[in-house]
Amino acid sequence: GTYDDDQTESIDCANCAKGYYNDMPRQTACKECEAGSFANSTGQAGCYLCELGAATDKTGQEDCVACNAGYFADTKGSKTCSACAKGSYSADSGSPTCMLCAAGSSNDKTALSKC
User: Fold this and answer.
1) How far is CA 83 from CA 24, 27, 39, in A?
2) Average of per-residue pLDDT across 102-107
């Protein structure tokens, strides 16, 4: 979680910034967290995968973004949220799955928050 940028004669190492990590000793730079992962504090030795219902398609992130209503992310480490299919919905943000429309209701579009 630290590095020495060789810019000074100091032997002190600096913490990697949020969104970055270092998992090896004696490095001169930190690595960006990959898309689908994040580091929400400084000095991380690794990145965390986005939780279910959240995603990020950018590298070097401090956090993942909850999927909007009508979208879902059903695997950890998602880079993008997927639209709920026709006949299904997700009413809340941060949903890991979509719900099927109940009997007697339907929808004919994708990415809806209700039937």
Assistant:
1) 38, 41, 26
2) 90
3-state secondary structure the chain: CEECCCCCCCCCCEECCCCEECCCCCCCCCEECCCCEECCCCCCCCCEECCCCEECCCCCCCCCEECCCCEECCCCCCCCCEECCCCEECCCCCCCCCEECCCCCCCCCCCCCCC
**Which of 63, 67, 64, 57 minimizes the C-alpha distance to 95?**
67
For position 28, what pLDDT does the model report? 87
Residues above pLDDT 90, as percent of the chain? 80
Q: Percent of the chain having pLDDT more than 70?
A: 90
Contact 65, 54 (CB under 8 A): yes
CB 50 within 8 A of CB 25: no
Instruction: Give backbone dihedrals phi and psi of 83, rounded to 5 degrees, phi first.
Output: -75, 140
